[in-house]
Amino acid sequence: MSIPRNDWTKEEIIAIYNKPMMDLLFEAASVHRQYHDPNVVQVSTLLSIKTGGCPEDCGYCPQAARYHTDIEGNDLMTVSHVKAQALRAKASGSSRVCMGAAWRNVKDGAEFDQVLEMVRTINKLDMEVCCTLGMLTENQAQRLAEAGLYAYNHNLDTSEEYYKEVISTRGFEDRLQTIENVRKTNVTVCSGGIIGMGESIEDRAGMLVALATLNPQPESVPINALVAVEGTPMEDEKPVEIWEMIRMVATTRIVMPQTQVRLSAGRMNMSREGQAMCFFAGANSIFAGDKLLTTPNPDVNEDMKMFEMLGLIPQKPFVKAAQPETVEAADSQFSALGEKPKWSRPGHTIERNLEASQKSKV
């Protein structure tokens, strides 16, 4: 197997994306079979451990406090609740639990200590543990690694150019810095984005350039189709066509051959046939469970029926990387530093975000 390229250009990726569909599918499927078992798909369960009240203004997100979306917020879950959810996920075929908290960035203190205990607890269940908690420092990444974290998710969302049309409360460089901080540990990186936010094909290619030129490339890349939620600035965006999703999956597979390409948000609008085409095009990971943080997702039993129909097998945990060791809190070499990093706040105005936030005041 050849070493993945890290010098992809936007023009090259656009050319791949725009290939005749049959040629694109053949190339992607060929690459997929070279690096992966095409009949094995990794199954994750996404758990919102702290929902709503986020201070960010991401135009796609119903958890932003400034938008009126009828999302029921909840405080940080208890460790025992998370353990029960993880055991349920394991019994249904998931090999990984991804925990998401609606935070701008990680802050040292009792809540982060509680998350670290969640990580220790799930790792001891012999499941891969992933977290998505916002921006974090190198020291915080080291503390998560010590606890037994397997992966950290931090999506780039879109291209650097279009990012400014989606979010004004943080900068694209902060995303890259967080990924760099994670890379200083043994934790794997999960980073992808969303299509269907009004971006161009050039923006989709730009996002893939940013991911594919990382060295090493992310071990996992989620490809999400926007779920347009009423009350968000993007509530009126048209649903992504299944062919767009297939093209995006196939292109991602070709430029990041060793990566697990995750078929993420938007599966509720995809037929089994459409999902099968995505698997053929190189997707080999899904989120299972009836909810992805706050948006609907296919029932896990329906997914297992689809797996049986297609002859797919759920991937076992720790196939791609070894299980991390868990260091107990009392034995940790890293302690809270009380850091107050100056993550950027660009502060420019995005008209549709502003209009949506003003509607919520009515």
Series of H and E elements? HHEHEHEHEHHEEHEHEHEEEHEH
- Structural class assignment: alpha/beta
Instruction: Please report the distance between the alpha carbons of the first and last residues.
Output: 58 Å
Q: What is the 3D shape?
A: globular
- Rounded Rg: 19 Å
Q: Could you give a short account of the major beta sheet?
A: 10 strands, parallel
* DSSP summary: helix tally: 12
Mean pLDDT score, rounded?
Answer: 92
Helix content: 25-40%
Range of strand content: 5-15%
The number of E-state strands comes to 12
| Low-confidence sequence ranges | none
Task: Please describe what this structure looks like.
Strands 1, 2, 3, 4, 5, 6, 7, 8, 9 and 12 form a ten-stranded parallel β-sheet that branches. A two-stranded antiparallel sheet has the order 10-11. The mean pLDDT is 92. The chain is built from twelve helices and twelve strands. With 362 residues, the chain is α/β, with parallel strands linked by helices. Strand 2 (96-101), helix 4 and strand 3 form a beta-alpha-beta unit. It is globular. Helix 2 (21-35) crosses helix 9 and helix 3 packs parallel to helix 4.
Keywords:
362 residues, two-stranded antiparallel ribbon, globular
Write a compact overview of the structure shown.
The protein is of the alpha/beta class and 362 residues long. The chain has helices at residues 10-17, 21-35, 79-91, 110-123, 138-147, 160-163, 172-183, 201-212, 242-255, 272-280, 300-310, 351-359, and strands spanning 40-50, 96-101, 128-132, 151-153, 188-190, 193-195, 220-225, 260-263, 283-288, 291-292, 295-296, 313-314. It contains 12 helices and 12 strands.
